[in-house]
Amino acid sequence: MTVAQWDGRSLAADLAYVKRVTGLSTRRGVLAPLRTVTIAALGGVGTLTHYNYDAGVVVRAHVQGGLEATTVDFPELAAAVKAAGRGVVELERDGDRLVVAGPDGRSSVAVFAKAEDVPVMPTVGGTAVLVADTAVFATAVGAVAPAAGDDVTLPMLTGVHIDADDAGVVSLATTDRFRLAATELTTAAPVTLEAPVLVPAKVLAAAAARVAKREGAVSVYVDGGNVRVSGGDSDVVVRALDCQFPRWRNLLPGAGDDRMRARIAAPDLARRLKKLSVFSVRVTMAADGVRVEAGDLETGQVSTTFDVAAHDVAGRVVGVVAGYNPEYLASLLACAPGEVELTWSPTAPTSRPMTIEFDRVRHLLMPVRLPGAEPGAAAA
């Protein structure tokens, strides 16, 4: 019998990542083969593998020793690793049991008896449609993920729309009907994507968050109806969403469009907005700042007021009053590392979307109707 030695803390974190990126359900009602994970160690590399038809992942780690590929129930393995402690954890196959031992205890889990029932992860090869630095990729995905919807009855709004051209420009876009986020990044290996692909946003965001902590490059492959995100110590395979993403490019203001502009520090405003628990806030633009008022705006009872500095404020935008959902506004502002440029339509600033722009990122946010406001009111 051979023994593999894992770092207990890293193994627990990798198991949590497998669950997060694949949406693996640990409920007893789920078919047993879809609750399994396969663990193995060979040549100093340990792997965790899970696939459930919708998404799959292979996570790699440096380990000592060896362990033949062993399939077990995911919740049972996670519980055993947690019980073993955070030091060095030893895993050993003992007949039809997998023994997990660590500084805090020793336990065993049953080997899954029907390995032939466990779904096999498809191979997603071909040419990468995107090759980028891990930090660049993670930043781009992080900038668009907040605008993705979570309503499963509208699956076309729950994904990240990815398109690529032969000039090496890859675009990412998301929308939930109230927010729209779009960005572009340059791939190191230009290739034209035959058709845009829609990748589940939660899966892509989880994969991006992991590679952000690793150095190197990340590659995205599209093969048929599957997408693979490969970076550093993990490979994620997910089934693309088979639905039509809304036409979004014509919703963004054109380069030559007349817009009213102002600049603010996004992190400060986002931090303050996150503390509010109201449906809408009233935003009033001044020559040197933004005033935010929250409370029962229907009755005029304002409970919270604060000001955030602004500069380069266009004269036409001074005095504009508009309403926004604070949660949505904060989610977009939080993507920016520093200053952003806000722009409004000069003819209908309170009824048409506000844009938030920084670097190569563009966000749109629909306003909410304020009591007593006239739709389409123009700035003075």
From TrEMBL:
Q: Has keyword Transferase?
A: yes
Its subcellular locations are: Cytoplasm
InterPro entries annotated for this entry? DNA_clamp_sf, DNA_polIII_beta, DNA_polIII_beta_cen
* Superkingdom assignment: Bacteria
Keywords on this record?
Cytoplasm, DNA replication, DNA-binding, DNA-directed DNA polymerase, Nucleotidyltransferase, Transferase
Q: Does the keyword Cytoplasm apply?
A: yes
Q: Name one GO cellular component term.
A: DNA polymerase III complex
Q: Which residues form the DNA polymerase III beta sliding clamp central domain?
A: 134-246
Can you cite a GO biological process for this protein?
Answer: DNA strand elongation involved in DNA replication
| SMART domains for the chain | POL3Bc
Main location per UniProt? cytoplasm
Q: Which GO terms describe its molecular function?
A: 3'-5' exonuclease activity; DNA binding; DNA-directed DNA polymerase activity
- What protein family does this chain belong to? Belongs to the beta sliding clamp family.
Q: What is the protein's given name?
A: DNA polymerase III beta sliding clamp central domain-containing protein
